[in-house]
Design brief:
Chain lengths: 249, 242, 218
């Protein structure tokens, strides 16, 4: 009898505490490439306001599918502009806003390639057998890389050498571990500690990746979400994301 | 030039230690209670087990000589072996079973006819009776023109009538084949009926003549019974097998 | 028009893997079933490892092994002049490891169920252990062989995590159906995803039918 009472109290405590936790926590769906800057932004925000922002990091495509099927997020930070726009058109989220712009670089851990004058001279080398390009259909950084290759008339000729990891993180993993000779990655990845083990070259032919986000209409914390969005647009936030290789305009 | 063997093989609880010999055209019956090691002896003769020490010769060939390090694998001994069951291959017909390792097809077919199961040649082993299966097993073993034939309780799983018929067949075959035949059984009547020589085996050793009487105890005529001191026999038996 | 090449690649991978694994599986199942030797349970546990490892872990491990700077990758490069990672061959190797326990277990069970006396009889009748395997053991284990083949085929058709790591999704070479379906979902091409998924079912069914015909005579 006593044991039952203790269990009951325990459960009450857990469930009772949960709404309290929800008061101070926002749930964000964040594109995988934005992990590092987001964690710092969230930490800074919590220091300032005491509000915790929890994030789920995975590919924008998966996050989109989850949101369309009713996943309980407050915010969606995508790696592209297309998906937030689609959600807005469906009425699933509010007006999209741009929170960061990323750049594609060619990253490699092969030291013998680091002195090259530009990325083109690397990818056309005979001894560069495999190149990682994140799936252009689903990864915006991969799509940007594809555009660069198409512009320089290399897309068709390089096909046999292209390997298509599912997302930009896997592309960085392939290039970073030497599974591929080089890979088209996010600048932010190249600037990490892992990235310092290799070198990167800019790919000017690849357009900047405009990353936009939106607040979900089903969010129970609209006010808090808007406050966080305002923070994302602040100069303070800009300084943080710049350190990770992002710009805003 | 028959089989001659001297085998020593430890078992759990006792050690098999005996000599045996069997001339061509003769049948030697190994008889004794279950667990006496009779099957092990047969397996050693066939090459399915290695003795701790000993030697085995057959038809002039030396199969085993532990002192000289000679050991001929079962494949090379050209023996016939009939198990109590699971001799025939279930995925083959009777005819295919007989021909499995036969010298040639005709030999196998003739044996099937000789053992009166030619009409079953297209059947699978699980579709025919136990007695017919053992006939087929004998065909399979003999089709190879073996140098010797070993039978391990071949009729124990059969009914009395079938057993009798098969015993007759085996007895008739014995004179035709002119090879040594060693046959293991726990049935003393069968041993006495078939064997030109009978070797009682108790706990791995050849038993002496009073032990044979002991084994025959329930078959002995009442006229004998009174004259044997069974208590004393029992003691001697315990001593012998200790 | 939907691209059906991934379906063809999946079927090809499954068939090749099944054919190779039937041989490797038999070679491994035979000593496990027939003999006792030191370290036997260690071997069995090792063979069954892919059962408990998450596919992505296994895939990651293989990625590390097959890379151009790694042990296996370098050896392959030296032997064949081209890389191992991101090729169809890499997928076959990964699939073999991934599905190994699924073929060894049923075969081992089938072999153990054969009465030892049948095997001994074969020896006495003059067959070497190798000939006995093909003429006695195998024909009496067809049920186990069929079970193994079916399990491996279906398991390989559905393989995803391992292939995700070592395949690289190269169209026409390593982009198998499971990857293509995943990408179709990611790219919001839901209809393509449905069609490919639906087509996997008859592929499996045909194989099951063929297996039952070939391996089970009753």
């Amino acid at each position: 009898m006593l044991r039952a009472r203790i269990l009951y109290m325990f459960l009450l405590f857990i469930f009772g505490a949960m709404p309290a936790m929800a008061e101070d926590t926002l749930k964000a769906a964040v594109a995988a490439n934005f992990i590092a800057p987001f964690e710092e932004l969230a930490a800074q925000y919590q220091r300032q306001t005491g509000v915790k922002v929890e994030a789920t990091f995975t590919s924008s495509g998966k996050l989109y599918a989850q949101i369309v099927n009713g996943a309980p997020f407050d915010l969606f930070l995508s790696a592209d502009e297309d998906r937030p726009r689609r959600l807005a058109d469906k009425g699933l989220c509010g007006a999209p806003f741009v929170y960061a712009k990323g750049r594609v670089v060619l990253f490699t851990t092969r030291k013998d390639l680091c002195g090259a004058k530009d990325w083109l001279s690397i990818v056309t080398r005979a001894d560069v057998k495999k190149l990682a390009v994140a799936n252009p259909e689903t990864a915006p950084y991969g799509a940007a890389a594809k555009q660069a290759l198409e512009q320089t008339n290399l897309w068709e000729t390089l096909q046999p050498r292209l390997v298509f990891p599912q997302d930009i993180a896997q592309a960085f993993q392939y290039a970073g571990t030497g599974a591929t000779d080089a890979g088209f990655c996010a600048l932010s990845s190249a600037l990490t500690k892992e990235g310092a083990k290799g070198c990167y070259l800019p790919v000017p032919q690849a357009p900047a990746i405009v990353q936009s986000g939106c607040i979900l209409t089903t969010s129970p914390h609209k006010v808090q979400s808007e406050k966080f969005t305002a923070f994302l647009n602040s100069p303070e936030a800009l300084k943080i994301i710049q350190r990770f290789g992002y710009t805003r305009d | 030039m028959g089989i001659a063997a001297k085998i020593r093989l430890p078992r759990s609880g006792f050690t098999i230690d005996l000599e045996l010999a069997c001339a061509p055209g003769k049948l030697l019956s190994l008889v004794g209670p279950s667990g006496a090691g009779k099957t092990s002896i047969l397996r050693v003769l066939a090459g399915l087990e290695k003795p701790a020490s000993g030697h085995i010769t057959c038809g002039g060939f030396t199969w085993v000589d532990t002192a000289a390090g000679v050991y001929v694998p079962p494949q090379k001994r050209r023996l016939g072996y009939v198990f109590q069951e699971f001799t025939l291959f279930p995925h083959l017909t009777i005819r295919e079973n007989a021909a499995f390792a036969a010298k040639n097809r005709q030999t196998a077919d003739e044996l099937l006819k000789r053992l009166k199961i030619w009409h079953l040649r297209g059947a699978r082993p699980d579709k025919i009776s136990g007695g017919e299966r053992q006939r087929a097993a004998i065909c399979q073993a003999l089709a190879r023109i073996p140098r010797a034939l070993l039978l391990d309780e071949p009729f124990s799983a059969l009914d009395a009538l079938t057993r009798r018929n098969l015993r007759e067949e085996l007895k008739a075959l014995k004179t035709e084949l002119n090879i040594p035949i060693i046959h293991v059984t726990h049935d003393i009547r069968e041993a006495l009926y078939l064997g030109d020589e009978v070797l009682p085996v108790v706990q791995g050793k050849a038993a002496h003549k009073w032990m044979l009487q002991f084994l025959m105890r329930d078959r002995l005529s009442p006229a004998c019974r009174g004259r044997i001191d069974w208590e004393h026999e029992e003691e001697l038996y315990q001593e012998e097998t200790a | 028009m939907i691209d059906l090449v991934p379906l063809y690649l999946s079927a090809k991978l499954a068939l090749v893997t099944t054919a190779i694994l039937l041989m490797i599986g038999a070679a491994l199942a035979y000593p496990l079933a027939m003999s006792r030797f030191a370290g036997k349970s260690l071997c069995e546990a090792f063979i069954n490892l892919p059962l408990v490892l998450p596919p992505t872990v296994l895939g990651f491990f293989l990625l590390m092994l097959m890379g151009p700077r790694a042990v296996l990758g370098r050896a392959w490069q030296a032997l064949f002049g081209s890389g191992l990672l991101f090729t169809f061959t890499a997928l076959v190797m990964a699939s073999i490891i991934y599905s190994l326990p699924f073929v060894v277990q049923p075969m081992k069970t089938a072999f153990t169920r054969i009465d030892k006396r049948l095997i001994e009889n074969a020896y006495v009748l003059g067959l070497s252990p190798l000939k006995t395997f093909f003429r006695v053991i195998l024909p009496n284990s067809l049920g186990g062989v069929a079970a193994g083949a079916i399990l491996v085929f279906l398991h390989t058709l559905g393989e995803f995590g391992v292939i995700l790591m070592v395949g690289g999704s190269m169209p026409g070479e390593t982009k198998v159906a499971s990857i293509a379906i995943y990408e179709a979902v990611e790219a919001l091409r839901y209809q393509d995803a449905w069609i490919l998924s639906a087509l996997l079912i008859p592929t499996s069914y045909i194989f099951l039918l063929v297996s039952y015909r070939v391996f089970r005579s009753e």
